[in-house]
Design brief:
This protein is an all-alpha fold. The protein has helices at 9-12, 14-36, 41-66, 77-103, 111-137, 151-168, 177-201, 212-239, 253-283.
Length: 288
């Protein structure tokens, strides 16, 4: 009869402690917001989904490591946990900004507002917990045994997430060729980046015809050039001859287009840094 092994380091190590804090803080955040019953609409749904999703997956990761069941899974565990902690940090950071700016009004004197403020504080601390986990599990320079824990791997998660945020703002755009090219850039780069993440977690990179490092250099160079064109064309075609409406409400097209512009710049910088690190992985080897 098999006896389950308990690995106490899963909860006593610094990574385990960071995960415990993330579980507790995300639970506090969504419980307080749920008690207010004021989280309707797309922004409130996103915030609740983020806290619940991060709580559930982090708890699952902790249980699997505590019982040492993760080696039985058909995936690269280190890559999966690194990618998830980076994704959770980005999602909780976004939620920590969106929730108070959408639901907390000034002056904040009611009991509901106080609970919302405490939930926001818990969300910010939860982000710090996930950021700490990312820092603790990041691979050392020269170590590529777990690709998604390296700087290029973490940047892949960032690039995919920023592309998803960009898509959320593209609910209405004109059919001009320049804007269609920009949407094609966002879509193509997202699909390729997402496939790299999935193939890495699924241990499928060994079946690729060329080494991962060299493929990344070529892809990042191409993505960088494509994003340079999108950085120029998107604001040019979006704002040319058009002024900001007055008033400009929460769903104002101008603010969404401006958000897409900044997100495009963020991903441009991310692909540039990604190219630099990927090039170093190929041409500059760490001493043995």
């Amino acid at each position: 009869m098999a006896v389950a092994t308990v690995n106490l380091r899963a909860v006593t190590s610094w990574v385990g402690i960071a995960r415990l804090f993330a579980i507790v803080l995300s639970c506090v955040a969504f419980s307080l917001v749920a008690s207010t019953r004021d989280f309707m609409g797309p922004y409130g749904t996103w915030c609740m989904f983020t806290w619940c999703f991060c709580f559930a997956v982090t708890l699952l990761v902790l249980v699997l490591e505590l019982l040492e069941l993760y080696p039985k899974l058909p995936l690269s565990w280190d890559d999966f946990t690194s990618a998830f902690s980076m994704l959770a940090a980005l999602m909780v950071f976004t939620t920590s900004v969106v929730f108070p700016s959408t639901f907390i009004s000034s002056p904040c004197s009611s009991s509901k507002c106080a609970r919302q403020a405490v939930a926001t504080t818990a969300s910010c601390l939860c982000f710090l917990a996930y950021a700490l986990e990312v820092g603790l599990t990041r691979a050392k320079p020269g170590d590529i045994s777990s690709f998604l824990s390296t700087v290029p791997g973490l940047l892949k998660v960032f690039e995919a997430y920023v592309a998803c945020l960009t898509f959320s703002l593209l609910d209405n755009y004109s059919s001009e060729a320049g804007l269609q090219w920009c949407v094609a850039v966002y879509s193509i780069c997202f699909i390729v980046t997402f496939l790299i993440i999935i193939f890495t977690i699924g241990r499928c990179l060994a079946y690729m015809p060329c080494p991962l490092e060299k493929m990344l250099v070529g892809y990042n160079a191409l993505a960088l050039v494509m994003y340079i064109t999108a950085t120029v064309l998107w604001p040019l075609y979006s704002f040319r001859g058009r002024r900001r409406p007055d008033p400009c409400g929460r769903n104002c097209w101008w603010d969404k287009y401006l958000g897409v512009t900044f997100l495009t710049i963020f991903n441009l910088v991310a692909y540039l840094v990604d190219l630099i690190y990927s090039t170093r992985m190929v041409f500059i080897r760490a001493p043995p």
